[in-house]
Each structure stands twice: as C-alpha cells, then as structure tokens.
Amino acid sequence: MNKKIAETKPKDSTQNFEAQFKRSTTPLLVLFLLSQKEMYAYDIIRETLSLSNNVYKMPLLYTVLNKLESDGYVTQSQRIISKDNRVRVYYKITDDGRHYLTELTNTYFALSDAVNSILFGGENDESHN
Hints:
alpha+beta; globular; Arc Repressor Mutant, subunit A
C-alpha cells in the first residue's frame, strides 16, 4: 500500500510543477499573443496550442483575462459575429499591458537563464533535450 502511494508521488509533484509553471507564465503568453493582434479566448487557446506543438494547454484563461483586465493591461470589446446577433468578446492589449509584457519578458528571461545556469553549468546548448 505504501509502495503504491510512493509510486504516484513523483507524478503528482510533476503535475504540480507544471501547474505552477503554467499559472506563472500564462499572463506572459496571453499578453504576448495580444501584442500581435486582438483575439478572443478560444483563439488564444488555439494559438497557444499551435505554437507549442500541442504541449501548452492554457489553464484558467478567463481568470487570467479578468485579472489582466482589472489591472488595466487588456481591454475587451464585443463584436457581433453572425446574423442572429451572436456576440464574441475580443481582448486587446493596452499601453500599460505592453509595458507590463516587457517587464514580464525580462523577468522570465532572467529567471530562465539563472535556472539554466544552475542546471547546465552555464552552458546554453540543447544537448539536454
């Protein structure tokens, strides 16, 4: 019984690491995508999956979008997309959002470089893949 619990722990820990990583990087990726063009939520999810070869599934996107909007980093607008007045909500990055994206990007690269330095002894090659 204890052996079975021990066997599942590494997977749970890995899933927790992945969840925390995605929670931390989702605002960065959302702002990056919105810096390219206005998008609606499903487009953001689809584009993220496409650019990541279906690896990065965006968690809690609406929570992130709502937080970014309340912080003034994105705005939303509604567009009628069909003859029966169906509405789609589009998101657009603000000037403050562009500044925040720059800050997040710089922080991401600094932390990523530091972690890579620790893991790979300062080598920045792809031999660990």
